[in-house]
């Protein structure tokens, strides 16, 4: 492998995050549908890194369960950033090493790519990612020489009055020559108040060896924002949400009220889709062009076809065909495949079912474990009785059948093509094609019964 093109990303994700006051590791807290560490891994991958090593510690098994196609190093004791990189030493080769943090989810692949270009074109042995802040308090300051090279990183507590005026700060993100980094790690010492090994000391070692250290300054300091508590988590989520919405709008999606629209990072939306206020679109949802979503609709991990209209509804793990209308107040639970030009009306609940093209369930209907053919009409109050107390059973309604209001379909059964089920019927056995099924008691009117029972209310 060409050492000039190989980049190992080392992501530090071992910290407990005490200020989150949480049972789960800090890096697993989510922003816009993904954990923070997943955002960082995706950033590194999209920036073209060759391999990714995540250094884990607190909640190691939980972090490992969340990530795929990465390698892991274990930091049993959290003894500083330099110590964390030491734990990944066995993975470091002659290529470059990019050091990232699992709690900086706003960093973009574009910034990493620009940093790599700057590093290589400048012939640097180490590059520090920096930013200028109006209020740099608490950050390490970047000290440059006349040629612009980094000669030191001075921490706030060690800076003198002039150095504290410097606004260029250290993000803690670095790009190193791997072999030089490996040698420098061997010389790190923990003779400080915290008894920790600091990665900033590697920069000092590089300078002592007359290696070339540069600094790539980013334009937007938001990208290097670290998340240490729930307030910062909320602030980072707000920034990422704004980015996501702006990207969709610039690609042809109408978002009527961005202040009240929430779209996860993994969502894909085609042009000419309209998102009305109050919507949450989550997970791996894909929405095709000309769809209208909302208002006040939640969609998760679903494929929404061209021209679909969903109002005031909840859709989870569904596939909905072209031109179908859903809602208001429908609940599409996981496992449904809804055909094209279908109608799922108000207060209709469907789960684990197939619902055919041009079929309708206009209101107040439950379809559970059903296979509904094409052109079927389900009247108001139809219930698929799918559960016998131990097992779920399926009901099949074949093409062009009509099911009247207040019908109970007790599974398992099949209603044949072009059949009719009379209103109020409880169907307990299959219905042949082109048949009428009726199963209700004959009506009798007993005249005078109310008066004889003394139940008539006389007018005053």
Automatic annotation (TrEMBL):
Q: Which cofactor does it need?
A: Mg(2+)
Q: What is its EC number?
A: 2.7.7.23, 2.3.1.157
| Chain intervals for the UniProt region annotation (Linker) | 231-251
Subcellular location(s) per record: Cytoplasm
Q: Which reaction does it catalyse?
A: N-acetyl-alpha-D-glucosamine 1-phosphate + UTP + H(+) = UDP-N-acetyl-alpha-D-glucosamine + diphosphate; alpha-D-glucosamine 1-phosphate + acetyl-CoA = N-acetyl-alpha-D-glucosamine 1-phosphate + CoA + H(+)
Which UniProt keywords are listed? Acyltransferase, Cell shape, Cell wall biogenesis/degradation, Cytoplasm, Magnesium, Metal-binding, Multifunctional enzyme, Nucleotidyltransferase, Peptidoglycan synthesis, Repeat, Transferase
Top-level lineage group: Bacteria
Q: Where does Mg(2+) bind?
A: 103, 228
| Region of interest called N-acetyltransferase, as start-end residue ranges on this chain | 252-460
- Domain named Mannose-1-phosphate guanyltransferase C-terminal: which ranges? 267-351
Please cite one Gene Ontology biological process associated with this protein: regulation of cell shape
**MF-aspect GO terms:** glucosamine-1-phosphate N-acetyltransferase activity; magnesium ion binding; UDP-N-acetylglucosamine diphosphorylase activity
List the residue ranges of the region (Pyrophosphorylase): 1-230
Family affiliation? In the N-terminal section; belongs to the N-acetylglucosamine-1-phosphate uridyltransferase family. In the C-terminal section; belongs to the transferase hexapeptide repeat family.
Q: What does this protein do?
A: Catalyzes the last two sequential reactions in the de novo biosynthetic pathway for UDP-N-acetylglucosamine (UDP-GlcNAc). The C-terminal domain catalyzes the transfer of acetyl group from acetyl coenzyme A to glucosamine-1-phosphate (GlcN-1-P) to produce N-acetylglucosamine-1-phosphate (GlcNAc-1-P), which is converted into UDP-GlcNAc by the transfer of uridine 5-monophosphate (from uridine 5-triphosphate), a reaction catalyzed by the N-terminal domain.
**What is the protein's quaternary organization?**
Homotrimer.
What protein am I looking at?
Bifunctional protein GlmU
């Amino acid at each position: 492998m060409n050492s000039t093109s190989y980049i190992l990303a080392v992501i530090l994700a071992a910290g407990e995050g005490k200020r989150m006051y949480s049972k789960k590791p800090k890096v697993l807290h989510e922003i816009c549908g993904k954990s923070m560490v997943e955002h960082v891994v995706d950033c590194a991958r999209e920036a073209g890194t060759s391999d990714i090593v995540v250094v884990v510690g607190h909640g190691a098994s939980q972090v490992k369960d969340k990530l795929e196609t990465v390698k892991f190093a274990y930091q049993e004791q959290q003894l500083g950033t330099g110590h964390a990189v030491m734990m990944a030493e066995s993975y470091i080769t002659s290529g470059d090493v990019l050091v990232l943090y699992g709690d900086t989810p706003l960093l973009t692949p574009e910034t990493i790519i620009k940093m790599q270009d700057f590093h290589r074109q400048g012939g640097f042995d180490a590059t520090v990612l920096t930013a200028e802040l109006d209020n740099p308090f608490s950050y390490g300051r970047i000290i440059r020489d006349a040629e612009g090279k980094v000669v030191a990183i001075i921490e706030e507590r060690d800076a003198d009055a002039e150095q504290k005026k410097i606004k260029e700060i250290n993000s803690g993100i670095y790009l190193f020559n791997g072999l030089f980094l490996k040698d420098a790690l061997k010389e790190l010492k923990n003779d400080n108040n915290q008894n920790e090994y600091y990665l900033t000391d590697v920069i000092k070692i590089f300078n002592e060896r007359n290696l070339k250290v540069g600094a790539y300054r980013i334009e937007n300091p938001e990208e290097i924002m670290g998340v240490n508590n729930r307030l910062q988590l909320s602030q980072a989520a707000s920034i990422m949400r704004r980015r996501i919405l702006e990207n969709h709008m610039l690609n042809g999606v109408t978002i009527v009220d961005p202040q009240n629209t929430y779209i996860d990072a993994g969502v894909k939306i085609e042009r000419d889709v309209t998102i009305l206020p109050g919507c949450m679109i989550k997970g791996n949802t894909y929405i095709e062009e000309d769809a209208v979503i909302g208002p006040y609709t939640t969609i998760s991990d679903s494929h929404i076809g061209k021209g679909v209209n969903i109002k005031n509804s909840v859709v989870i793990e569904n596939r909905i065909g072209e031109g179908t209308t859903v809602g208001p107040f429908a609940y599409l639970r996981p496992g449904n495949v809804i055909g094209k030009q279908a109608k799922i009306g108000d207060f209709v609940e469907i789960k684990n079912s197939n619902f055919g093209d041009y079929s309708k369930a206009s209101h107040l209907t439950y379809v559970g474990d059903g296979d509904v053919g094409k052109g079927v009409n389900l009247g108001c109050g139809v219930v698929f009785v799918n559960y016998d107390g131990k097992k779920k059973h399926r009901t099949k309604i074949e093409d062009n059948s009509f099911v009247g209001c207040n019908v109970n379909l007790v599974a398992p059964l099949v209603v044949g093509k072009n059949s009719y089920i009379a209103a109020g019927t409880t169907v307990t056995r299959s219905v042949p094609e082109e048949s009428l099924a009726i199963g209700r008691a004959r009506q009798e009117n007993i005249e005078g019964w109310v008066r004889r029972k003394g139940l008539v209310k006389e007018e005053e």
